[in-house]
Structure formats: structure tokens, C-alpha cells
Amino acid sequence: MFPLLSNGAKIFKNKLFLLRFVLESNQKISRFCFSVSKKVARNAVTRNKMRRAGYRLLKKYLSEIKPEVIALFSYRVIPKDEEEIIKNLTSILKDSKLIK
Fold first, then answer.
1. Rounded to 5 degrees, what are φ and ψ at 61?
2. CATH at 74
3. Lowest CB count within 10 Å: 1, 31, 46, 71, which one?
4. Domain range spanning residue 55?
5. What would the mean pLDDT of 52-64 be, rounded to a whole number?
6. How many structural domains comprise the chain?
7. pLDDT of 1-26, one tens digit each?
């Protein structure tokens, strides 16, 4: 039903993100989601900007990411700038071995 909430999800953390993902063999393409809690950013405008920045910057890595991945990126803090998002996104994707 919700594979990211089940016990089979793999979890990785860094300063900016919490990544939960599962490998689903019945999926043809990978799917991604970015979420920002109200505890992290109270203002909806800020939360939406953070989510959109995550999707925009993840596009650079789509060709390198394994197929059949369902992933949820949760922001843990508000990033200072896009450079911090890129650095943390790259490191968490490498740590989780979703990219080489």
C-alpha cells in the first residue's frame, strides 16, 4: 500500500535531508517526492520554494538514478542557498547508492 511507510524502506540522513526509498520491481520509472514540514518552515511560500528547488535540482541526476525507485526527500532544516541543496542532494544520493 504505502511502501515508504513500511519496514522495507531504507533510510538515510544528512544535514539537510531525510531520504526514504524502496526499490519496486513492478515500477517502470522512478518516482520522487519532496516534503517540508511546518515545523521546518512555518510559511507556505517558503515550503513551496524549497520543494520546487528540490525538484528542479534533482533533474540533473535523473539520468544517473537507478530505475524502479520510489523516494521521499524530507527537508530537515531551511537551506541557506541552492548550493547547499545541491551539495546535500549529491551526498545523500551517493551515500544511498542511488547514483554512482
1. -105, 0
2. 3.30.230.10
3. 1
4. 10-95
5. 94
6. 1
7. 466 656 788 999 999 999 999 988 78
